[in-house]
Design goal:
Largest sheet: none
CATH superfamily of one domain: Cyclin-like
Oligomer: single chain
Helix content: 55-70%
Structural class: mainly alpha
Number of strands: 0
Radius of gyration: 22 Å
Number of helices: 16
């Protein structure tokens, strides 16, 4: 099919046209099959999604689908209670029932969440300030984005089971980042670096003692899944369409904005990643949610609506928020200045 000279043909539209030409179907039959075509096309592209990386052993193309099924189960196993910061005179049994209602257990996985504990000396605002500072620490030592995500997960899991005084909250934060750095980084910062970055507020021995306490409380379960892990897979599917580098960086920016927000603990990491991609595509005026993305993520547009709407609110208030570390980080050319982009007027 020849397109007029003034028509801009997208890669996605051209790919669809090639598929139709290969099938050599008459126009009448193409129109008849159009309502059910997106699902079959999405499944077909899903099967071919990893063909380009088959020669790369690190991509694990032979069992990448099984890996992400496992990660979807694991994110439920180590989900943090969204109630541990709420000070209320409620029994532990009532809190446990409230926590259980927020979970989405898999049919083949028994979920045994820890009992949510109440933090009486710290609150969600203090948690946000701590994470904002840790973003600056991660930038100072050029840590990977996954290290920051792991640090926040360790912090929340520890705070959900151990009451912490506000004077020790920064100690918990730097120690969790130390543990995450040892897990994720090739050359993690030394303990003395964290002593220095905290302005010698804590001694080396205090950090080492807290490290042992946190590791024991977490039962040495450090292999947890974050939104960053899911985002990598989702972006790969989005690149089959019109997703560009700016959209990818905007997804990462939106995910990091949610790290400071205590309210996002009620969402699974896979849901946060999918919502970030949907909102980023909408912001860049690209097709917001294709059948392929729905197949890869397992979320429909309706299922993501609540998370996307809340994320858009965070996106809008980022400019006036007192916590500016993430926004300043993504305002640099290295991150394509995506934090300077104007948020959309309405949710997708």
């Amino acid at each position: 099919m020849q397109y007029p000279a003034n028509v801009r043909v997208t890669r996605l539209a051209a790919a669809r046209q090639r598929l139709l030409q290969e099938k050599q179907l008459p126009p009448e039959k193409q129109r008849q099959q159009q309502p059910c075509q997106p699902t079959s096309d999405a499944m077909e592209v899903d099967d071919n999604l990893d063909q380009a990386d088959e020669s790369n052993p690190q991509s694990a193309c032979q069992y990448v689908k099984e890996i992400y099924v496992y990660l979807r189960d694991r994110e439920v196993s180590y989900r943090v209670s969204p109630h541990f910061m709420q000070v209320r005179h409620t029994s532990c049994h009532a809190l446990a029932r409230a926590h259980a209602r927020t979970l989405e257990p898999r049919a083949h996985l028994a979920v045994h969440p820890p009992l949510p504990q109440t933090q009486r000396d710290i609150n969600a605002t203090m948690r946000g300030i701590l994470i904002d500072w840790l973003v600056e620490v991660a930038e100072e030592y050029r840590l990977e984005a996954e290290t920051l995500h792991l640090s926040v997960n360790y912090i929340d899991r520890f705070l959900s089971c151990v009451p912490v005084a506000r004077s020790k909250l920064q100690l918990v934060g730097v120690t969790c980042m130390l543990i995450a750095s040892k897990y994720e980084e090739i050359h993690p910062p030394a303990v003395d670096e964290f002593v220095y970055i905290s302005d010698n507020t804590y001694k080396r021995e205090e950090i080492l003692h807290m490290e042992g306490t946190i590791l024991n409380r977490l039962s040495f379960e450090l292999s947890v899944v974050s939104a960053k892990a899911f985002l990598t897979r989702y972006i790969k599917a989005a690149r089959m369409g019109e997703c560009d580098a700016t959209t990818v960086m905007l997804c990462q920016y939106l995910c990091e904005l949610t790290l400071q927000e205590y309210s996002f603990l009620k969402y699974l990491p896979s849901e946060v990643a999918a919502a970030a991609l949907r909102l980023a595509l909408h912001t860049m005026r690209l097709p917001a949610w294709t059948p392929l993305l729905e197949t890869i993520t397992g979320f429909t547009a309706e299922k993501l609506q609540s998370c996307v709407s809340e994320m858009l609110t965070v996106f809008r208030k980022a400019e006036t928020n007192s916590l500016q570390a993430v926004r300043e980080k993504y305002s640099h050319a290295k991150f394509l200045c995506v934090s300077m982009l104007a948020p959309p007027a309405v949710a997708p």
